[in-house]
Amino acid sequence: MKASISTLNDLDEGIDFRNVDQIKRGLLASMVRYVGFDPESATPHDWFFALAGLLRGHLSEQGMRTSRSQYGQDVKRVYYLSMEFLTGRRLMKHLLDLGIEPQVRAALAELGQNLDTVAEQESDAALGNGGLGRLAACFLDSMATHAYPGYGYGIRYEFGMFSQTIENGQQVEHPESWLQNGSPWEIVRHNVSHTVRFGGRIVCFRDEEGRESCRWVDTDDVVAEAYDLKETGYGGAISVNLRLWSARSTQDFDLRYFNEGNYIEAVKEKTVSETLSKVLYPMDTTLMGQELRLKQEYFFVSASLQDILARFLKVHKNPRLFPEKTVIQLNDTHPALAVPELMRLLMDQHGLNWEDAWDITRNTFAYTNHTLLPEALETWPIDLMEALLPRHMEIIYRINYFFLQEIRRTYPGDVEMVRRLSLIDDSTRRVRMAHLAVVGSARVNGVAALHTELLRSRVFPDFDRIYPGKFVNVTNGITQRRWLLQSNPPLATLITDAIGPAWVSDLDRLRDLEALADDAAFQDSFRAIKRKAKTRAAALIAERCGVAVRPETLFDTQIKRIHEYKRQLLNILQVIARYNHLRASGKPDLLPRTVIFGGKAAPGYFMAKKIIRLINDVADAINHDPAVRGLLRVAFVPNYNVSTAEILIPGCDLSEQISTAGTEASGTGNMKFALNGALTIGTLDGANIEIREEVGEDNIFIFGQTAEEVARTKAAGYNPWNIYHNDPELKTVIDMIRDGFFCTEQPDRYHPLVNALLDGGDVFLVLADFRSYMNAQAAVDALYTDEKTWTRKAILNVARMGKFSSDRAIHTYAREIWGIDKMTRDDA
Ligand code: 26V
């Protein structure tokens, strides 16, 4: 019998989440049946699982409704392919989306439990490195909230981003097993699996009509198994499915070995293939030629495309309609193999010819670029690709052949142009994944206005010329549901009380707060909320770093990945200068400050690790110096992740966004801070430029060279030594670091950092921007003494953040890139 929608409605009789009593009974039942513990002796951890288990059924039901609507309306879907989804904890998000937080809180309270304590039992799903992965999570939230038929595909890493401890001032990495206790949210799809093939060789033959077809044989196979997570949207009507692939061996035992009695060899193959989804690569720039990474990329791309095609073909018999019903967004080049994979599937499995397959392919994909750093642009050695993916390499050669033929026709005799545009770099014998993505996509976008402009002018000028209109900008955004409603409930309530709740799904409505920027009572409440959030941040700092900090001081925060281009080093130089000033003058003319750092370094990134150590050494010296007690404190908060951000961002006064102009594609932390009422000190880089446009130049501290000035400075032959010799305050700071002031037991510890700044040419212009940064910091000090003016500016920052909602970003993608519409729920 075919189940009808009403069958699903009947299920609702199970439990009414508006009813505290029913939730309570549901929790008890879930504890006994699902967790298997006696409620009498259950811990908060057990209650977390009981609650999640209870909700999971509800989420799954909602997912089915969504899916039925999508099929029913035969909608065009967008598939978001990303190697990373940094979703963080899920419990509170689901409760807020479903609007049942108060009821669940009350039910737990009746059982003697506190919801916040229970929620803290959940481990972060840290399936991403940083900005790119968190953006993907914000996007799923916006798609679900606004009922776009979206679908995420990624990898179910067994180990996500490593957890970080600081030992002797240095980063130590530990494996992070978010699945250790199992994840109560996952829905395992044992019936959904796809075979992914590697290696082998190609046999091509012609049929009677002379049509060529190829077979890929003698391959090593791995099975991709589907695990689904439901991303709820606000209001809870519609959800987006996030399907993560886990690698399983095709064979548990290699019987050849097993029969010879070699048990270990017999299971070895299993272990090898299952390492594919074991661990997230914890770097977000250079990583060249790692075979396992390439295999991960192809593994998730192939499984996802097979899945997408199968879903399409269930309903549509004609593959030529594919782009009408499907758009696939490539989150950076990591899934760029989707281009040759779709070609392969269409030709080798579904019998299409090259022209038709290519027509479908280039109308299906869109590609987002997230970085300008040359070392982060992916390329793969041809030899490795040929060994692992021989059929794809052939397809890439052929795409390239036709593409370059067209270029030669348009630009006869321009061999340089051909060399520059080729998908293959002949001099290094590598495949340029960005070129593959550009050629294979209908649209390419950057993630902030400046970034898109630089992409067009510096990274892809030739492509921009040959494909007018292909490059577009979609400035990033963040979801206000997580980054305000969930992480800062007191501020969210204050706002809702003042202007109503519409901002939760329409952030432009925050504009109504402008009228309250000077209102004394509103200002008082705003300040009181900030103070409370700082107290909470202070407690976290005390617990994690053993450093006591006072919430009355200015909280100055830089939390993000540790990278030379993000210039944590510039920040710490400024901190040392401040320290020197306070010590020398003995006059507390500078406002008391707490400088907070947090962030992980890629395990093999020597300089970034040195920077972490320097911050910790400096923190140690300053925090133990009675001369600056009460005036300056420095804290490095270990293991920065989504949950830590949720506490540190609301409790911040000054947001540090100080990358060298032209290096940070967008930044999204900058948006989260401003939305929570911090003022930004920053360069004219990435989305900072647009933040300034929105909040007004009086309400942000801008310093340093512009992207154009950076380029000119470098072209003119920048010499950092000149700055060093001409700025005595800066010279003192650098000399202290060089001479081991902060590490007397090993005075040369920071020579590599000092060398990079001086003899190394100071690639990121730390010295060039130092004085201007100091001046901006002085302006911060001056303004912070004027409580009313500071608060006014902070309120205006919140009021003018509307543009930076991921809702706006998703509406733009939907309209301008994806060509998709919102769904209506059939039974809504
Ligand atoms: C690159 C690589 C290359 C080697 C292998 C591992 C790996 C992992 C990730 C990446 C991508 C890094 C790019 C990235 O995260 N970009 C950030 O994207 C944010 C969202 O668009 C943006 O706000 C940040 O400015 C940008 O740095």
TrEMBL record:
Transferase among keywords: yes
Catalytic activity line of the entry: [(1->4)-alpha-D-glucosyl](n) + phosphate = [(1->4)-alpha-D-glucosyl](n-1) + alpha-D-glucose 1-phosphate
Modified residues (N6-(pyridoxal phosphate)lysine): 672
Matches recorded under PROSITE patterns: PHOSPHORYLASE
Gene3D superfamilies xrefs: Glycogen Phosphorylase B
GO cellular component: cytoplasm
Compartments it resides in: Cytoplasm
Cofactors (names): pyridoxal 5'-phosphate
Family: Belongs to the glycogen phosphorylase family.
Record's protein name: Alpha-1,4 glucan phosphorylase
